[in-house]
Amino acid sequence: MKRLETIFVALNGWALILMLSAMTLVVGANITLRYVTAHSLPWADEAARYLMIWMTFGGAGLVLRTGGHVAITNLQDALPSLGQKLLRAGIALGLLVFFGFMVYVGIQYAQRMQYQVTPALRMPFLYVYAAMPVGFALLIAHLLLIARPFIMAGDYKRMDGATADPLPGGANG
Question: Which sequence ranges are marked TM in the entry (predicted)?
Answer without folding.
Answer: 7-27, 47-65, 86-107, 127-151
